[in-house]
Write a sequence for this structure.
């Protein structure tokens, strides 16, 4: 109930603070019989690792994952999978100044009210560093899905005012992409914008587009556990997420039924829609088409510009933040979005008896 | 697991098909000691009732709710609350033609693939008629919340291309409003647009804006069960919902941190934000400010215009739908949005030990 | 969380008080495609019905079940199954005297402390009349299990000091058995004992033995959700249950490993144990052998003899109970034990991917 | 769903195999504000540690626990608590001979059937070594309970044919007790019996009696989540448990209502029962009296005597087990029983809004 657990069958429970000893978790519901590739998990972690480019936080964390259980000679046994990633470069002293004040648009004040105690070092558990556990559990989910030909991909669709064409978001990114945008010209603009706001001590919002390919028809449960409802839950649990849509999303509000409906036609692989305005889900259940969705993120709240705030003893002060942070959630949030989509997809396939395939 | 249950403490499990005997449910987790006003429940049902205006389906259902348990002399006892609303005006014969074909952009085809069987009469359980149970459980939740001075309100913010100013959505509606839009001039345009698409045999999408007022700080659980994540889940489980956002939502993607951050200041009622771009939630936990959100809905998929589709035996055909339906989800979806918001708010307050207040 | 729901996949949520309008429930997780035999459900209800013999309560309830949803032309659709059994012969006036005092060894006093309110009429929801909903959900589970050759059987193994031989409990009962005891001579003694205590205004305890046959190997989840742990939960949730054991149960405490261990041998149907001291479960997982268990029940606490008790205003008084009740939980608890065992078995098979068989 | 998680609010998810890298877990739902005493946790682990006496396994594990998260300056923050206990003295080579055969009355064969793969080293996750995680989570629960004056105590009530008087089980043990039996004379007999079966290469069963003191009235949820039903679940999830009873337990089957009912009387602390045959729970809810229960354990299945068994390739063979093991579950299971009782009590108090006290 306390919110550190997600998933019904393939389920992650995580722990760890930004400046604590370690981030880790326990995955329950891992099907038996998969040869787990630890390199693949590490590759996903590396995508999210800080210190990897001038666009992201300079904190230097190796982020090496250690699997502690659930494997026998490299193969999953059906037992719970414990894992741990030790924190190595936590510089808590940089946060000493924050112990006695509340950062605007951070969890600080609300958590203090809720718990009466708060770990101010690097934001404690409210830091996006908890995403590390999600990426590990998502990387394992991806390996299960890959066996069935299912893939998950996220790209940067918008940074500030720079956005790609609506129709591009699910295209592959060119090799060497800095922030995972499928349109190289737009990406250059986005990178420049991120550098600019960073130099100005500011931050900027973004939109991530995702696609899940290869999911068979029938995943999802009618009424309250529709695929899209649980996908929204998973995505909106990511730090800084402010909005979720799938298929045509908010644009559907401006459309007529005759425009938005997807006509059906018979084909050799059964009944298929001519278009996919629906985004791959009907009646809460996957249709077999691509599942498309977008997630909006606010600008990272930690900025270097001076801000008006209040101390824990109730005095108005001006804050000029230090500490290491990203000016934009992209590119580091992309593997997190993918991880959450992968976990949800595997979980709903298990729940709907679609995994393992019979 | 099968998706007909929502909520952890204040929890609804519902049943019923559009043309079955009844819609109903069992609410578990109703706190003891509330004098339940059945009239208030009925009033909410009446807001969603078909046949009430020329803008909505002409199906004539009295939608009388009967509470079957959990009350002693009108007061809740802490026991589960069973309730039932009998279906009275189901005209299944109008759907006979639909038994052997799949309606585009409906659940038909996906559910057939999933279950191998499907109740085609009025869409069975995929019909928005299941919302009746939500409205009942939400109306009861509202009564609990009202005791603590908490209110939930939803209004129509957009129909097709007609939208109110961004800053209005949480204003009260004028008395006699036809579709719950706070701006009378815009409402007139919206109503005209709905009539127009209805005459043309078409339908139109919409956006609903909601606000939850009076929630104390501290509701919501960090990491995976953030208030916004579960609110997104609740909203995206409503029929025809395509998108969810809270606070600045998708607009936050175009904002800088220095614009989006809410400065804090000391006040007689504690630390408060100068602005509320955050939408009332920080670190997954309510801040004590208004919780603002918006939900996008697709155009109702049932239209009278001819559409290309496929029979259950795999032949391409043209469908011209009959049956009774709404041209737009508003106004009937408004009490459903409110019901879901009320249920979630009560549930998270119970989970976070904020209800009953100590 | 409030305790009116049981099961993870095949799950019952029930409602209803002894003297309320109805008993009912909603079953979620019913697999699609089963032709449901309502007569079979009714037959199970009839086994539990009051008024059927001189050994049981004279309350006359027809206990007719009505299925409200989840069926299409008699076949389950995978949707939630709502059902209702109206109360017809509730004579609340007989309980008027009990409004202002607490019955010894009943829920009265504890519930009053917990909720601050209590439905005293027939014990409200603490009455064994809530078992009606269990029997309905169990009868449906039995139909699913029967398709796979799985059966559940419960018999009376002890009433007061009269008990059958340890080795008999899973034998079939002879036709016409009054209280479901497989040994006709012992049954005659038991019946005489029940009559005797009944005449004396007293009541008597009992032990029920159960067996689940035909469960394939592999149902149950290691560590916390072992088959026996969840079976214990299900059984100990029955009114008046005081103890649970499986296999050798408490007798195992007096045995040596060399006596209790079941040697293994190779056979044409795989590895099988020579004996079944284990009771069909190893490492929390079904072994493929018969699952044997026993449940102890206290004497029914409602007795006609005078008892010392206290009024709600705190005065010591003597209570001489009226109202209609059974002198012993058998025979009416037998279908309840079977129902709980059937629900648990189906649920764990669904959870362990053993149902439907592939 | 996969069974490695227990508890609704105060909830443990554990991981780890007997011969893997570590045993550990994540506790969710730890209330904020408790100064956690790591020494107290270690003391509980030491009670369960192997190698501590000639009566238990000679495996030498320091069993040092490391708390990884959820604390700020030694005080719980409300965040999830990760912990780890590294395995140090796993001698897997002793188990090489067991890779290709199934040990009688162990999980081996059932788990192989279920998962198609199995970690044979020390029994993998089916080993009682997983109890380490329970003891850690239970020790933390005990600290929360202690603040409210609630204590949990378990003692040895029976070993083989040697048993204490029925009325003694909840008495304190004398200092220096070898196996936690409150009756020194009986304990001497029990110890001698354990030594004897151990010398003979055999093992012996036992019964543990427990008492939970100081729980206020009102913990527990009616119908399916009665306190006793969930306590039975917790206890029957312990390795080797075969039976559970509370209050009079199985003896209640032989009693009359007039003997078993607990008369009530008015007292300065409210309505109280004159006797406590009920075992502290009525209507599924704690009454405020002592909660008494007993758990039966089978003899440890690993014995040195030759046994008939089968290889993984289906040949009948004789097994003479090696490896290090206990001849009886007591005394090492006592802190496990206490841990499970403490976790359940805290969880149900949280669920019933009795913790923290208002």
């Amino acid at each position: 109930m306390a919110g550190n657990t997600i998933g019904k069958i393939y389920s992650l429970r995580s722990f760890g603070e930004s400046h604590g000893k370690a981030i880790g978790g326990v995955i329950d519901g891992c099907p038996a019989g998969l040869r787990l590739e630890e390199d693949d998990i590490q590759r996903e972690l590396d995508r999210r690792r800080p210190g990897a480019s001038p666009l992201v936080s300079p904190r230097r964390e190796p982020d090496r994952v250690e699997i502690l259980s659930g494997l026998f000679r490299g193969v999953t046994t059906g037992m719970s999978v414990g894992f741990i990633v030790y924190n190595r470069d936590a510089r808590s002293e940089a946060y000493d100044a924050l112990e006695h004040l509340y950062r605007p648009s951070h969890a600080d004040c609300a958590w203090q009210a809720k718990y009466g105690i708060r770990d101010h070092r690097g934001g404690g558990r409210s830091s996006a560093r908890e995403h590390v556990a999600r990426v590990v559990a998502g990387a394992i989910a991806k390996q299960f899905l890959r066996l069935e030909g299912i893939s998950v991909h996220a790209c940067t669709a918008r940074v500030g005012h720079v956005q790609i064409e609506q129709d591009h978001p699910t295209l592959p990114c060119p090799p060497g992409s800095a922030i995972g945008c499928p349109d190289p010209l737009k990406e250059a603009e986005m990178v420049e914008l991120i550098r600019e706001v960073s130099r100005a001590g500011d931050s900027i919002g973004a939109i991530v587009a995702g696609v899940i390919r290869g999911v068979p028809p029938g995943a999802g449960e009618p009424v309250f556990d529709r695929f899209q409802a649980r996908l929204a839950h998973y995505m909106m649990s990511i730090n800084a997420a402010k909005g979720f849509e799938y298929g045509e999303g908010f644009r559907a509000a401006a459309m007529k039924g005759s425009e938005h409906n997807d006509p059906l036609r018979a084909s050799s692989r059964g009944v298929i829609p001519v278009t996919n305005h629906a985004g791959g889900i009907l009646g809460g259940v996957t249709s077999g088409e691509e599942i498309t969705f977008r997630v909006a993120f606010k600008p990272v709240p930690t900025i270097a510009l001076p801000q008006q705030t209040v101390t824990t003893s109730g005095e108005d002060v001006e804050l000029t933040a230090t500490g290491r942070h990203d000016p934009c959630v992209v590119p580091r949030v992309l593997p997190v979005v993918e991880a959450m989509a992968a976990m949800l997809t595997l979980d709903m396939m298990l729940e709907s008896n679609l995994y393992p395939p019979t």
In short: Residues 334-351 of chain A form the longest helix (18 residues). The longest strand of chain A covers residues 151-159.
